[in-house]
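Fold it.
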Amino acid sequence: MTLLSLSHVTKIYRQGGMLGRRLITAVNDVSFELGDEPEILSIVGESGSGKSTVAAMILGQTEPTDGELQFAGKTVAIHSRAERKAFMKEVQPVLQNPFEAFNPLKRVDRYLFETARNFSAGKRPDRQQAEKMADAALHHVGLTLEEVKGRFPHELSGGQLQRVAIARALIPQPRLLVADEPVSMVDASLRMAIVNLFGRLKNELGLSIIYITHDLATAYYVSDNIIIMRKGEIVERGRARAVLDDPQHEYSRALKDAVLAAEFGEVG
């Protein structure tokens, strides 16, 4: 069974007024699938490659101009609060900047408790049950409820807050996480910790993860499969190690060369 399917998906934005309107193709004829077996699929590209637009369409935040997205055999089409809630029990986002995901005046544990109450299967949990659900999710990301209880976002580090955001996404017990540049706002020393966490979640919880990134190094490390995008189109795809060890498209080779130059310095 296919968990997620994108078939010839295109997204065109219209900019400007009546006298100066122009069309911008953000994503052009993109197709790929996620099977039912848990995997980490990285979608890699520079800014403007269309990868975040693909993420937004998968999350049901924007509809494709053409083509079709299906999740678990059903077309992704969200037109009501009930449809949104049902979909988000299965598919959860992890955003780029954790500080933008939390109201600075609201304690982070309240987000966890509210998510537990809103997405619990069956009877709405009481406070004690919600705390147990929150604590269980936090343990999966290497934290405890005691560490974050009563604290505001600014009282946590960026790495801690991103892990809280991931824990919040785990509470509904989704089948798919869509992580859009989840380590770009985290200190370099903590990036591999977050990436390693995704690997553990895949193995321990049977989660599939779409990892949106411009960082080839972390994509190489964590991915089962990889898609490389340029100007809204897929230019290369396949098993991550095979693609990145021996990229065939000139754009893929240029991305790899840029990573090597940044890591080891220019020669000469």
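Strands lie at 2-15, 22-35, 40-44, 66-71, 74-75, 91-94, 176-180, 208-213, 225-230, 233-239.
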